Amino acid sequence: MFKRNTAVFLAATLATTAFATKYEAESATVSSEAKIVNSSGVSGTGYASLQEGNISFTGVTAETAGKYTLTIHYKAGDYKANYLKVNGATAGTIDFAATTGWADVTTAVTLKAGTNTIAIEKYWGWIDVDYIDISAYESAPFKLSATPVTPNATESAVKLYSFLRENFGKKTISGIMTGDMSGYTLGADFKTHDDVKYIYTRTGKYPALVGLDFLFATGPNASGSWNMEYTDKAISIAKGLWKAGGIPAFTWHWKDPLDKKDAFYIQSAAGTNEYTDFDFSTGFKPGTTEWNTESAAYKGIVADIDHIADYFLELQKEGVAGIFRPLHEAGGKWFWWSINSGEQFAALYRLVFDRMVKVKGVKNMIWVFNPEGSTVTSWDPGSEYYDVLSIDIYNNANDHSSNASSFDKFKNASNSTKILALSENGPIPDVNNMHTDEAVWSWWMPWYSTWSGTWPGQTSDAVWKSNMDDERVISLEDMPGWDQYKPKQDTSTTRLAKVSPFYGAAETIGIFDMNGHYVGISTQGLPQGRYIVRQRIYGRNLNAVYIKK
Q1: pTM
Q2: For residue 313, is it left (φ>0), alpha (ψ between -120 and 50) or beta?
Q3: Is the pLDDT of residue 423 over 60?
C-alpha cells in the first residue's frame, strides 16, 4: 500500500504521451479463404477480407511486457464475433457490430517484451480489416457495492457477498460442477460425490465452490421419485458444503414451464433429443413486456419459480446461502428463455428475481447475470437485479488463457461495478496468466467429469496441482469457515484495479477520491482521507491507495 504520514507534493504538470503503433492488414498474413484487397479510401493500400479465413499480424512490438489496448479498424455488414489470439493463446472473442462504413472496436491484450503475434481467427468470419493499432492501456478501478442487491439479505448472504467482494481481484475461488448423482448417497458427505472426489484425486485439495443443478426439479417428470431424489441430493450437498465452509452455486436448466415437453433446448439445438417450442412471450400482454397474469405461460412460469424458491427457503431456514445463476447463457440461441428479444428476456429475469425475493422471501442468494458476450448490455435486466456478471468460456484442451478480452469487455459493460466470474469453463485459466493480464475472475467452475464429461480432464495434473497449491487460488482448505468469518467494515464502493509498490520512475496521471472522482494531480490542499493515486510506470497505468493524515 502506498502510504505516507505527511502531505506529499506530486508534480503538477506531468502527463502521459499518447502513442499508437499501426499495423496494416495488407502487410499481414492471411490464410484459408481470406484475401488482401487493394483499395483506395483506406489506411495504406488496401484491406483484408477475411470471409471464412484468418489474419495474423506478426512483428507486433512492445517495449515492455504488460497490458495494452488493441484497436481493430474493421467493417461488417452484420454483427459478427471472431476469436482473438495473442502469441498462439486464445484471448477470447471479439464482437464486431454491424457498420455502414469503417469503424473501431477495442479490447485489451497482454504482450511480451519484444515481438508478438496477434491473430483474428474465424468464429463467424466475414469481416473486413483495415489495420490494427497498439496503444497504452489505462487500468480503471472497480467500484463495487458494499452490499448485495437483495434487500434485507440474510446474514449468511451478506457474509458470502462480502467474501466474494473482498477477494475479487486478489484471489480466485476454485469450483467444480456436479452431474450424475447416482454414486452419491443422500445425506452423505459432499466430498464423496464423484465430481468433487475427482478434483481431490487430481490435486490433493477440494474445490471451495460446488455447482448444483435444478435440472430435474421442474418439468413434466419432476414428481417422479428419481427426479425428486436427484434434487434432494443437490440440496443435501449444498447444506453439507456450507457447513464445511464452502459455497454452493445453483444453475437451473429450466424445462418447459407448461410441462408439455421434458426439455429446455429449442429444436435447432436439440439434435435428435426432445425439444420444447414453449414461447414465454405468450405470457405478455400483446405488444408489451407487461405480464398477463391470467395467461397459461405466466401461470406455468410462476409455478416453477415458486417451486425452486421453496428449495432456497429450506436452505435459508438452516442459515445456508448460495449463488444463483438463473436463465444462464442469455442470448445463446439454444434455450427457450433466449429465443426472444433482450427486452423480453430482461422482463423474465426480473420476474424470477421479484417473485423469489419480494413475494416468496428468498433472501439467501447472491444473484448472477450470465449473458453471451454479444448480449452483455442489450439483455441486461438492470444492475439492481444481480451482484455478479459472469460468462461461460470453453477453450480448447490445455488452453489455460486468462480470457482477458472477455474480462475487459464485461468490466467495461458493467462500468466496473460488478464482480466478474467465469461460471462455466473447460480448462481452467492459469493463475499466473490471470494476474499477468489483470483478469482475475472471482471463480472458475469446470463442467462435470461424470456422465462422460471430459472438461476437468482438459487441464493436466501439473496445471491442476500448481493452481490449487497457489495462494492466489482458494480451495476448500483455505476457506475461513462461515462461523468464524467476519466481513470487513468497508463501506467504500471503490476497489483498486491494481495495487503496486511503484518500483521504478513514475509519472503521476491524476488523483481520485474513493468514489473515482478526479480531484487533481497534487495532494496539496486536499483534506485528510484516502485517495487513489494513478501513475504510469514503464508504459503502464497503475493505481494505489494514498492516505493523507
Answers
A1: 0.83
A2: alpha
A3: yes
Instruction: Show the 3-state SS of 176-239.
Output: EECCCCCCCCCCCCHHHCHHHHHHHHHHCCCECEEEEECCCCCCCCCCCHHHHHHHHHHHHHHH
CB 329 within 8 A of CB 392: yes
HSE-up of 56 (CA within 13 Å, CB side)? 13
All three cell numbers of 32, joined, read 484459408
Yes or no: say if 309 and 323 are a contact pair by the CB < 8 Å rule: no
How far apart CA 154 and CA 360 sit, in angstroms, is: 14
Residue 83's H or E segment, with its range, is: strand 80-86
Half-sphere exposure at residue 176, Cβ-oriented, CA atoms within 13 angstroms: 34
- In the 8-state DSSP scheme, what is residue 371? B
Angle, vertex CA 388, rays to CA 382 and CA 390, nearest 5: 100
Average pLDDT of 11-16?
29
**Residue 139 near residue 70, CB atoms below 8 Å:** no
As given in the structure block, the three cell numbers for residue 192 are 464423496
Whole-number Cα distances in Å, 178 to 195, 211, 264, 379, 511:
6, 6, 18, 28, 46
Higher-pLDDT residue of 118 and 516 is 118
- The confidence score (pLDDT) of residue 92 equals 82
| pLDDT tens digits, one per residue of 91-110 | 888 989 999 999 999 998 99
E strand spans, 204-335: 209-213, 247-251, 322-325
Query: Strands 103-111 and 66-75, how do they pair?
Result: antiparallel
Q: Do 292 and 285 meet the contact criterion of CB atoms below 8 Å apart?
A: yes
Quick: pLDDT tens for 478-530.
999 999 999 987 655 555 554 444 344 566 777 777 666 667 777 777 777 77
Query: Long-range contact list for 23-26, CB < 8 A, 24+ apart?
Result: 23/57, 23/59, 23/60, 23/118, 23/131, 23/132, 23/133, 23/134, 24/130, 24/131, 25/55, 25/129, 25/130, 25/131, 25/132
- The number of beta carbons lying within 10 Å of the beta carbon of residue 413 is 18
The grid coordinates listed for 145 are 457495492
Closest CA to 195 of 244, 401, 421, 209: 209
Q: Which residues of 117-143 are buried (b: 16+ CB within 10 A; e: fewer)?
A: bbbbbbebbbbbbbbbbbebbbbebbb
Can you tell me which residue has the cell 429450466?
Answer: 254
Alpha-carbon gap, residue 127 to 178, rounded angstroms: 39
pLDDT for the residue numbered 527: 78
Give per-residue pLDDT as tens, 171-203: 999 999 999 999 999 999 999 999 999 999 999
Whole-angstrom distance, CA of residue 131 vs CA of residue 45: 11
